[in-house]
Description:
Blueprint: H1 8-35, H2 48-68, H3 72-94, H4 113-134
Helix pairs in contact: 1-2, 1-3, 1-4, 2-3, 3-4
Amino acid sequence: MQSDVPGPARRAVRGVARLLAAAGLGVDAYIHAQLADQYDAVAASISQGTLFRIEAAVAALAALLVLVWRRVPADAFAWLVAAGGLALLLIYRYIDVGKLGPMPDMYEPVWFRDKKITVVAQAVTIVAAGFLLLTRTRRAPRGAPPQ
C-alpha cells in the first residue's frame, strides 16, 4: 500500500522551493518599492511610480501567501505575479509600446543593476513556483476509505 504523504526529502525540497519563491518575490517587491519615487514623473492618468508601488504590494502579498498558505492558489498566484512582472519588464525593455489608455509610456531600452536583479528574482520565482505547482501531492478526500 502506497502512502499519499510525501517523504521527508520531498517536503524539504518543496520547502526550499517555497523559500526561493518567496525570496524572489521579496526582492521584486523591495526593488519596485525603492524605485517607485524615481518613476513618479512618468505619468498618464496613472504614474509608473504608482504601478511600481502596486507591483511591490502584490509581490509582497504573493511572497507571504506562498510561505503561509501553502496551497495551489497561493503557488499559482506567486507564479503569475512573477511571470507577469517579467513579461512586462521584457516587453517595455525591448518594445516601445507607447501610452496605453491610462498607462504611461514605460519604454526603457537599457539594462541597469536593479533591472537585472529583478529579472533574476522573477525567473527564480517562476521556476520555484512552477516546481511547487508541478509536484503537488493529491490528497484523498476526507472520509474516503484508504486505498
